[in-house]
Design goal:
The structure holds 2 protein chains of 2 kinds. Chain A is an alpha+beta fold. Chain A has 19 helices and 19 strands. Chain A has helices at residues 4-31, 33-37, 43-51, 86-89, 101-104, 106-110, 118-126, 142-152, 183-192, 201-204, 214-223, 259-265, 268-278, 280-289, 325-328, 333-336, 346-357, 394-405, 460-476; strands at 57-58, 64-70, 76-80, 91-93, 97-99, 135-138, 157-164, 169-175, 231-232, 239-241, 244-246, 257-258, 361-363, 368-372, 380-381, 388-390, 418-428, 431-441, 447-454. In chain A, strands 3-2-1-6-14-15 form a 6-stranded mixed sheet, with no helix packed on it. In chain A, a hairpin with a 7-residue loop joins β14 (368-372) and β15 (380-381). In chain A, α11 (214-223) packs across α18 (394-405). By secondary structure, chain B is mainly alpha-helical. Helix content of chain B is 70%, strand content 4%. In chain B, the strands form 2 sheets. Chain B has a two-stranded antiparallel sheet with strand order 1-2. Chain B has a two-stranded antiparallel sheet with strand order 3-4. In chain B, β1 (2-6) and β2 form a beta hairpin. In chain B, α7 packs across α14 (373-397). Mean pLDDT of chain B is 86; it is low at 1-13. Classes of the chains: A alpha+beta, B mainly alpha. At the A-B interface, α1, α2 and α3 of A face α9, α12, α13 and α14 of B.
Chain lengths: 486, 440
Amino acid sequence: MPFTKEINRLLVGLLVGLGLIVASALYHGTLISDRLLEREDNARLFEQEAALLRGSIYDRNGALLVASLQDEDGFAIRRYYYPELNSAVGYASLRYGVGGIEAAYNTILRGDDLPYSLNTYLSRDVLHYPGEGADVLLTLDLATQRTLVRLMQDYQGAAVVLSVPEGEVLALVSLPTFDPNTLELSWNRLRRSQDNPFFNRAVQGKYQPGSLLYTPLMAAAIANQVPLNTLYEDATRAVAAGEVTLSCAETPPSDQLTLAEAYFYGCPAPFATLIEQLGLEEISRVFRRMQLAEPYPLPGYTPLLQSDALQTATPNPTVTPAPGATDAFTITLEDALGQGALTVTPLRFALLMLALASDGNAVAPHMLYAARPPSADAWSPVTSRAATLPLTTAETAHDMRDLLQTTVEASTVRRGQSFGGATALAYSGNQTNVWFAGYGLSPLREGVVVVLVVEDTDDLALAEQIGLRALTAALAAGREPNFPID
Amino acid sequence: MSVTYQGTQTIVEGAPLLTSRTEAHLLWLAGGFVLVNFAALTLIRPENWLSHLLCVLIWVLSAVVSHRVLRLTLPGHDVLLLPVVLFLSGWGLAAIERLAPRFGDRQALWLALSVMVMLAVASFPRVLYWLRNYRYVWLVLGLGLLISTILLGRNPTGQIGAPQLWLGFGGLYFQPSEALKVILVAFLASYLGEQYPAMRTAQPDGQRLALSPRIYGPILLMWGLSVVVLVWQRDLGTAILFFMVFLILLYVASGNTLILLSGALLITAAAFVAYRLFSVVQLRIDIWLNPWPEAEGRAFQLVQSLQAFASGGIFGQGIGQGAPYYIPVVHSDFIFAAIAEEWGLLGCIVVVICIALLTMRGLRIALLQQGRPFRTLLAVGLSSLIGIQSLMIMGGVLRVFPLTGVTLPFVSYGGSSLLMSFIIVGILLRLSVEAQQPSI
């Protein structure tokens, strides 16, 4: 047979070729499969993500704030039910990633840390059902948040409500905000907006504190045993601080004021004298202990924009901070009077208020109560080892509480409850902002603190009114979560 | 079983290893596989149950009828060929129903037609005589088809700039190059079957006719034909397939290894020139060399194909569970990638084994054609068509070779391809029976 040798060779050649195919399939299917699948251009990753049913988000009383639904094509749709919560909850978008609480608890909500069980294997790997994440129960209180947003809806600004002494975040407001339900359509417009709605003013907003700093200055005075009842001559005179001239927030009855009265009327002159008396070094030490200049980094609220100019809520400070000035924390008179380069975030100041409302220590703020795996009925508490920040002494905190109690007119105080707080004016370029920082406590010294800032207004009464109503609402909300927890 | 000795030959008598019963058993196995896959698909897409049922019924009918007809009309035929090709086409049918449901019914009808034509070819006693004795008629017919495609060719998608490789008749499209492949193999087998003694005869100076126009004439003719296909039709896959199968036939006929080397040189030269001249060739080679920078552009199809292999892993995602639909035209050229994703590496190996089995059985049939060079070369050419075409497309989707737009025989969507593949099987079945008859 003349062709046998050639046919055999041909067969060998074809079999070698087919062997190469098997080897290549083996190589791509096993040896480098992970590398191939992790590539960003792998459309399967996108689909997997699109079908993933993130866990639901509940407030402390079990109100459903956010949930994932499935459309007819099997893709997940994230629904945000309360616009008042948007700035706190953030967003989860396939295209734009995650922000806010969605980012802070992304691992839980995606179910990434759920144990790999037989059930997971069968449903995910065999039957290819979409992944399901765990639900989260937050410390946020929907009623308090809605009250605050309703009161502040005509303004830009921020507000933080913390529980005393636990440091649970009950409300976290930043206005203006965005609608995560329509994020895909509005992203570019929102990103370009000068209002910078993705910027969480409560956590990231570095505001000039203005006369809000009189509170820590008073604490410094108390700590240094400066008599609060000594009369200061010419206490209502104006004080120059950088490019602005500071005067009393409210008109006092006399030119002679004690330090406590100057605090009540927001008069800068006695505080300028106090700063001279204590020395900038001592003021720096007290402020440093209170960590005022350091924004408290709440997880999930990372800046979206790289531009520094857009990362501050006060784009026109009266004093331009020198590079590294905050790090070195070398404060000036202007800084100490709240009109210098020193800026504070509402959350950071809320921590100081929390320390003053308790025993001088502040429990680091946290937002997560419990989590619930997809198939479980009961919630499992999340054990967080929240750090305690020693910001001042118990004695100073006690004296400050008494002092703050005299500065607000709380008309809705219930029996046994104590309210205290202070309003403040801060100048930022051509803009004036008003602050409120206060607390409301039960006889057991359990309660809440509220810190808020309203931009572009000098209406101190407005800040006080919003602050007190927020305190009332938060105290009425109850302390324990109204939800079954294992 | 008894063993008797007749002169130098040993004859083993007794029950043969592969019988008609084996074919039936294998068809049962294939049927089980097809049924399970369609059942799983129906669970996922219950709305398409009627279409699935139609596919299964057509497949079962094809298997039963072809098995019975072959048993009656072609006793002693190769019993592995039918189960393997029906297994592959049933698998392909399930994959097409899963990937492009609107094409499933059409492919099932093409399967029915193809099986009928295969049976007709296999049962027609004079098919080999016609193929051999009317070779010039076939050649003229083939070239006529090629010219008519160049002049009247269309693309069923209507896409502007797409290759015009089809001839349309009242809404039905046929790809003449598929028929041309078989016609050219028959022509070359007939031609070389007559010429091979001269090719193998040593000259007075001891050299064989390595440089004779008898050898290089047809080579250049085929090369020219391939270039025509490439230039006018931009059908890179068919052009390469024509030329490679021709080289194989020439090599087997002449026994001259130099022919393979010369052919390889010609392919390289043609590839170099084509790379310079034709954007389609340039694209295929560029993305073969490095697809990653253009993973979301020109190399999207190839990169998605490789990711399908990665996604499938060893056991696959299961039918309807993966995402092979990200690969453009996955139901046609890239169906092997879809199999990789949903049936895994194991599925790929099974497909490769089936293709290897088909090729081996075809070459075995060639070896059995004692003293009948036309039949030997015909079986070699047809087996090579299936083997080389499968290699080209499987290697293409795996980046072993540059991509060439050919179908995976019996599996990919495409009526012309399926019909001609079954005609090849019909001829091989006929040859397997004729091999048992004494040569004249």
